[in-house]
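Predict the 3D structure for this chain.
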Amino acid sequence: MKVQLKPVAWPPLIKSHHNSPGWIPVRDVVLTLLAWATLAYFLREPIAVAIDYFRYPRFELNTTTLPDMAFVWKRLRPFAELVVLAMVWLLVSVQVWRKRALARNVRELPLALPPDQHAALFGLDTRTLLAWQQQRIQIVHFTHDGAVDLRSIQR
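Done. Predicted structure below.
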């Protein structure tokens, strides 16, 4: 019995940008610029402080003031607590899932095939298969229909 293998086009990913629609690079650029603009908007106050700090006279704040860190922490504390809670929940749930998955996947290995059945599975002679099993390194070539290419092995 021969094992049938389907030929696979490699690589299975998009080979070049010519295969993708033209709007995808435009979408990527627009989304990237939108993400950077959103980030700059939310960081506008620290950016203004940094610009003022490095403007002449250097290393002095002239037009801005430092933020009240107690007020900032008061506003950010619930978010920080939520992040820590989510991280702890994620770590615990992964450990529980891992233990369940390891316990569920414990199975006994099937018995080894007898050499004659193993050889018949690939359409080989039993003596040839036993001789190949004794070799330390073996390179096996398959034909396009999934059979073992005997010509490449016997060289």
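The first helix runs from residue 23 to 42.
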